[in-house]
Specification:
alpha/beta; two-stranded antiparallel sheet; binds dicarbonimidic diamide; globular; 6-stranded parallel β-sheet
Length: 238
């Protein structure tokens, strides 16, 4: 068992073979200069700040050979998987499928739709292309998790209140125990991130738990990754 100091109370992983990392949409479209996110007038530095922390969590999973899923928000080039409502949303701005500085916006296989170089998946890591905000909608994620007998998901990525929160809610409704790493998720709007963290862990963890990367990495490093009856440091929250 691994116990991780978290809010609203300790997050318990019964055994490390039940846990997987989900990294949401750390793609060039959202994080890099000239991408879709910046074209919409967003401050991409808010998202870029978390890259080293997401990499630390990724390395923690890689070191222990635990399952890793990367997601990408993107559509088929003929836009057949993009509902008209999503396609038409917004005024006087670039739209999905338009040509941007990194190829067509949010189209699978375009340069901007790639995961940023710092977090490039390894060959044994699973990349889930998703047409929606949630990673369970019209994807193979749930069957992968069932095949690997995963019950506990560690969530990171962007943006906290859109694709990360949607995925966490979808997972929660399907019975997964979800932990969001606070400093490994970001929004273009810091106040939206803060509200999302609070709503996730409100009412006794109605959607799940939140913790810091330090708490998570430290808890996994005890006794080679397993913690039994240890007194963990909760001082971050005091
Ligand atoms: C958005 C996402 N914000 N990955 N996508 O459109 O959160």
């Amino acid at each position: 068992m691994v116990l991780i100091p978290a809010l609203p109370y300790e997050y318990e992983i019964p055994s490390l073979d039940r846990v997987a990392l989900v990294i949401i949409d750390m793609q060039r479209d959202f994080l890099e200069s000239g991408g879709f996110g910046e074209a919409l007038g967003n401050d991409i530095s808010q998202l870029q700040k978390i890259v080293p922390t997401v990499k630390q969590i990724l390395d923690t999973f890689r070191d222990r050979a635990l399952p890793i899923f990367h997601t990408l928000e993107g559509h088929q080039s003929d836009l057949s998987d993009c509902p008209p409502s999503k396609l038409q949303r917004g005024q006087n701005q670039l739209k999905i499928g338009d040509m941007g500085t990194m190829g067509r916006i949010l189209i699978l296989g375009e340069p901007g739709n790639n995961i940023i170089p710092e977090l490039q998946p390894l060959a044994n890591e699973i990349v889930i292309a998703k047409p929606g905000k949630g990673a369970f909608y019209r994807t193979s994620l749930e069957s992968w998790l069932q095949e690997k007998n995963i019950t506990h998901l560690i969530l990171t990525g962007v943006t906290t209140e859109v694709c990360v929160q949607t995925t966490m809610r979808e997972a929660n409704d399907r019975g997964y125990e979800c932990l969001l790493v606070e400093d490994a998720t970001a929004s273009y709007f810091p106040e939206f991130k803060q509200s999302t963290l609070e709503m996730i862990r409100a009412q006794g963890g109605i959607v799940g738990w939140t913790t810091t990367s330090e708490n998570f990495i430290q808890a996994l490093s005890f006794s080679g990754g397993y913690v039994k009856n240890n007194k963990l440091d909760m001082s971050f929250y005091e």
